[in-house]
Amino acid sequence: MSTKLLQGKKGIIFGALDEKSIAWKTALKCYEAGAEIVLTNAPVAIRMGEINKLSEMCGNAPVIGADVTHLDELKHLFLESMKHFGGKIDFILHSVGMSMNMRKGHHYTGISYTWNHKTLDISSLSLHKVLHTAWNLNAISDWGSVVALTYIAAQRVFPDYNEMADAKALLESITRNFGYHYGVRNKVRINTVSQSPTRTTAGSGVKGFDGFISFAEEMSPLGNASADDCANYCVTLFSDLTRYVTMQNLFHDGGFSFTGVTQGVIDKIEKGMQ
Known about the structure:
By secondary structure, the chain is of the alpha/beta class. The chain has helices at 22-32, 43-48, 51-57, 71-85, 100-103, 113-137, 164-186, 209-219, 227-238, 263-273; strands at residues 10-14, 36-40, 89-94, 140-150, 189-195, 249-252. The chain has a six-stranded parallel beta sheet, with helices on both faces. Helix 4 runs parallel beside helix 6 and helix 6 runs parallel beside helix 7. Helix 1 links the parallel strand 1 and strand 2. It contains ten helices and six strands, in the order βαβαααβααβαβααβα.
């Protein structure tokens, strides 16, 4: 993207881990579009990932560690970011999610509720905590934009997506509800982007992920949307071109979400029955 849609804007990118991350690609696209950014992730993710490499690629963007479940760390993140920027924040990407039940292979009908609470805290309530902290500090500029990444399993059953489906449903609800209050007070818009299944480090850990991708590719008239294209879409949502889009769950999936069946899928099923 060669246009400077975000010239002069300042944003925080949550969740960049490595080059496969949508957050990583979004950070690069935002920087390319003229924005200044701050990168953040949990301290353990910073140690495991390659975020310092990304920082260099984004003009030596500051890297500020923050556990999204801890309000004091989020407050520190926002205060330090505003100090760095010399003012308020114009956009935020929330690309955060983790499920211990999925990592440990627990079936949805037999999850550990202790781990489930942690999943909801990290993957969903963290958005509320981010917005709550920004709200109390009045940290987001009027007409600012917040985007959180989600998946269609919040609306439809994908058995192996497990408890993350519940987490994404809660994430989308928080988007709508906080989006109302932030819109009324500061004209801040808050949306989720429901992306095609994407080969990120986190996504690849989902059981049957290759099947997810293949099925979605067959069912999408345009094919699966790439992580780079998702990053481009996020840039438009951070820009002033989408100032009246808020409280929406925006499907970025090549048409998968509204396709009942495709001829290609029918042909394969019929061929398998012969």
